[in-house]
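Running this now, will post back.
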Amino acid sequence: MLDKIDLTKTISKSEYKKEIKVLEAKLSELQQTINQLRIPVALVFEGWSASGKGTLIGRLLYSLDPRQFNVYTMNRVTEESLMRPILWSYFTKMPSKGRIVLLDKSYHRVTLPEGHDTWKITEKEKEGFYYDINAFEQQLADDGTLLIKYFIHVSRDMQKKRIEQLQKNPDTKWRVDDEDVKQNKSYNKYLKLFDTMIFETNNESSLWNIIEGDDSKYATLKVFRVLIHQLETEIEKRTNQDQMAPLPKIHTEVKEVAPISILNHVDLSMKIDDNEYKERLKFYQKKMQELEYKMYSKRKSVVLVYEGWDAAGKGGNIKRLTQELDPRGYGVIPIAAPSKEELDHHYLWRFWNKMPKDGHLAIFDRSWYGRVLVERIEGFCTETEWKRAYKEINDMELHMANNDTLILKFWVHIDKEEQLKRFNSRQDDPLKQYKITQEDWRNREKWDDYEKAVDEMLLRTDTEYAPWVVVESNCKKYARIKVLELVTRKLEEHLGK
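Update: finished.
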């Protein structure tokens, strides 16, 4: 494909000067509109070494209000990034509503030879990463982010000429490294690699825009034109959506299908006597302590997710799991209602920010599953959004698992009668009254709705790489030992790989 692009396109200096002023003024105006409409915009710049990406980005930024954008140069991968899933570096930098983010080089580069070397991925893993890229970009698009991707294309001769010019200047020779020279010498090889990258990640919601870069003036104008056109299209779409009257609901008779219930088949009579509990608790806590050090030395990350009914015993379970651990090696992340900043991003953004680096354990006390539980039941998101979330969550967890992260998810389960007993106990105990709120009582009134949502969550997001475990917790001590035993066993398997 790239070899068929006409790179001889040029524009005169006078034409450039005349048009660039108009485009700059228009872009400045559009930036304020997207800020008012709260449209997040992500610009991705990819292309050949010495193709002029930096110059194009600089020219673009000159027209924008610097208070409303962020620029990230991604050509140097930090140690912090290398110790987390690949997409962590990029998801955490995505724009909030109304802001623009520019990425100079991107996650697509992982599929190139230098990406293989940096991230230590095989050819087979590269094929899987194409899926991760497309899933990531679709998530952004579905959530309302306008993603605009540029590929700056130059000829072999022009690339060589620019590399030599950079090398001759003492002030710019540092910008050329061995990889840049190698790319020019292996131009035809890289041409095919870029073709594959573009083909595999060219989606309807995030198409690649090829910029003919041999003439920098022509390239600059095209970058502006593409951005202005896509911003205008998105603004028109959003404006029309706001003005459209809601469509009337069409009622059709649909025979309801009996739901599959997982929770109804859980045996909550499971118990353990005090002596056995004390013995096994001591044994598994000691084993957890040993495994934590092995996990750190082998740089293996672990994510544990706790979901469950109010008063099911999640906090006590987590406390026993971590009681003998070195606090430097783990973190417990309690999840409450999102902040304003978090609401301005994709709902998974706040969880990506808290993912552990290699060698560490992260324990989420409630999690991203709130999207298909409390947000679904309480109407904090639309039906389309929570139905879409099952795949989004599975894709996120798959990417983490591909990064060799062990993921275990626990639904801490009690029956309705046991919950009432614990609620009353908390309310009658002055030292525990802080644990019970009016919101807990309101949630209890929606037990049947939550039970249906939990069953669907377990069915749709129980995967081989991130399995759900239902923990029988009418007996808290039994639940603690079950989790400890399972976590230590899975950790041993994970560390033994």
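Confidence is low (pLDDT under 50) at residues 247-258. More later if anyone needs it.
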